[in-house]
Design brief:
One of its GO terms (molecular function) is aminopeptidase activity. With about 500 residues, the protein is of the alpha+beta class. It contains 22 helices and 9 strands. The chain has 3 domains: about 45 residues, no CATH class; about 110 residues, Aminopeptidase N, middle-beta domain (Immunoglobulin-like); about 300 residues, Peptidase M1, alanyl aminopeptidase, C-terminal domain (Zincin-like fold). It starts with a helix and ends with a helix.
């Protein structure tokens, strides 16, 4: 935010003064703030509230275009939700980097903005200015842009200029437009994520009501155009076509439903793979390389895009696709590509999965970190009933309950898998309860971290709530329970 407000040069001036004043000292956030302010002789108003007020601000924005006056209004309102020790909050200083797009997807030159009774000029020279930073410091503020010849589509929070939850009146058509045209890559990605979250939540509701699931064709075409746009950075493409995670979607629900969210995300991935099969196959082929491993952006982004495409294709139940991924595993010249292929193959129960997991272990059993990664991969697997595979891995010669990292990778990795940890039959909760009691006698610190996986039990339906609290009560009744585990378990139960 400092850099957004001050620009690159202003931020550097602030850093120079900060080091000049405080090199070798113990310093505070206020010292850093003062250096930024003094070096640039600027007013940061209530910026220090970011350090003293808890909670993520919610920023709402509405827009209005006046074709006759050729003006475009943006009205902002902010609210910081109450927290236990701070029931009421003051308005924050929120820098909103933004631009406006015309009907062709081009940035509109910004000349001036009317705000708080003053006309402020944005462009100071002959060079056009396409992006500016609005300073939101009050609960409600309005900005009016002049000389706007057509209704624009606003690109807000460019570069993620402030860590806030943004609620706008952008329509789905506006979001698809930003996904296709925005010059700011963060906002282009965010538009796609917003559309994906809305789509997934809508399909979750359909799934819960027993309706047939269907995918919006506009969403498919939006991802297709992104996938085939050779002008875009490959790492950006890889991130843009990646769907939000299941945990992210459950966090947006009043009552989290792991089964519905998992089913919907699996459906969307499968449908996209079917609709974009040719494009995904081309992407894999175009981004293969038999050259020696190189660690630079071009090669990292190439590998990232190829492996995301492989992940989509893996959702198709087709023997030729399985063979393609198996070949990627066998011919990989680096760990990144080999492990990505292994991850895709590990999601399908059967002989091929068992063979590649065994092969990978035999090749890398000498490397502690790789074996830890191998455990984590199997722990997070979405295969139904995976808890039984985890139980078997507890007896694997490479696993040691006394080794915290091995526990975090296998047990912690399993707890991060919504579909199996939150299994409706309670098998995941029962497994963790047993492990915590056993682990508490070996390493109470590690056991207390594991039991924290139960801390959000109220987010789920009544059946899962009863199953989770039963395990917490079982843990609390164990003989000789450590203070570490007792504290976390009792606080979780009372939450």
């Amino acid at each position: 935010m400092y850099k957004t407000l001050l620009g690159r040069e202003g931020f550097r001036k602030g850093m120079d003064l900060y080091f000049k004043r405080h090199d070798g000292q113990a310093v505070t956030c206020e010292d850093f703030f003062a250096a930024m302010r003094d070096a640039n002789d600027t007013d940061f108003a209530n910026f220090l509230l970011w350090y003293s007020q808890a909670g993520t601000p919610s920023l709402k924005v509405s827009s209005l275009y006046d074709a006759e006056a050729k003006t475009y209004r943006l009205k902002f309102s902010q609210e910081v939700p109450p927290t236990p020790s701070q029931p009421t909050k003051d308005p924050m200083f929120i820098p909103v980097a933004m631009g406006l797009l015309d009907s062709n997807g081009k940035d509109i030159p910004l000349t001036s903005v009317y705000h708080d009774g003053t006309l402020q000029y944005i462009a100071s020279g002959e060079e056009p200015v396409y992006s500016t930073v609005l300073r939101i410091t009050k609960k409600e503020e309005e900005f009016i842009f002049s000389d706007i010849s057509e209704r624009p589509v606003p690109s807000l929070l460019r570069g993620y200029s402030a860590p806030v939850r943004l609620e706008s009146d952008l329509s789905d058509s506006d979001l698809f437009f930003l996904l296709a045209h925005d010059s700011d890559e963060f906002n282009r990605w965010e538009a796609g994520q917003i559309l994906a979250r809305k789509l997934m939540l809508s399909l979750v509701a359909d799934f819960q009501q027993g309706k047939e699931l269907g995918l919006n064709q506009k969403f498919i075409e939006g991802l297709r155009s992104t996938l085939l746009d050779s002008s875009l950075d490959k790492e950006f493409i890889a991130k843009t076509i990646t769907l939000p995670g299941e945990g992210e979607i459950m966090d947006l629900m009043k009552v989290a439903d792991p089964d519905a969210v998992h089913a919907v995300r699996k459906f969307i991935r499968s449908q996209l793979a079917t609709e974009l099969k040719d494009e995904l196959l081309y992407t894999v082929k175009a981004n293969r390389s038999s050259e020696p491993y190189v660690f630079d952006h071009a090669n990292m982004s190439r590998r990232a895009l190829k492996n995301v495409a492989i992940g989509y294709l893996a959702s198709l139940e087709e023997p030729d696709i399985t063979e393609l991924i198996l070949n990627e595993y066998k011919t990989a010249t680096n760990m990144t590509d080999q492990f990505a292929a292994l991850a895709s193959l590990s999601q399908k129960a059967g002989k091929t999965r068992d063979d590649v997991l065994a092969d990978f272990y035999s090749k890398w059993q000498h490397d502690y970190l790789v074996v830890t990664k191998w455990f984590a991969l199997q722990a997070a697997c979405d295969i139904p009933g995976n808890v039984e595979n985890i139980r078997k891995l507890l007896s694997h010669p490479a696993f040691d309950m006394r080794n915290p990292n091995k526990v975090y990778s296998l047990i912690g990795g399993f707890c991060a898998s919504p579909v199996n940890f939150h299994a409706k039959d309670g098998s995941g909760y029962k497994f963790l309860g047993e492990i915590v009691v056993q682990l508490d006698k070996i390493n109470p610190n590690v056991a207390s971290r594991m039991v924290s996986a139960f801390s959000r039990w109220k987010r789920y339906d009544e059946t899962r709530q009863h199953l989770a609290t039963a395990q917490l009560e079982m843990i609390l009744s164990a003989n000789g329970l450590s203070e570490n585990v007792f504290e976390i378990a009792s606080k979780s139960l009372a939450a």
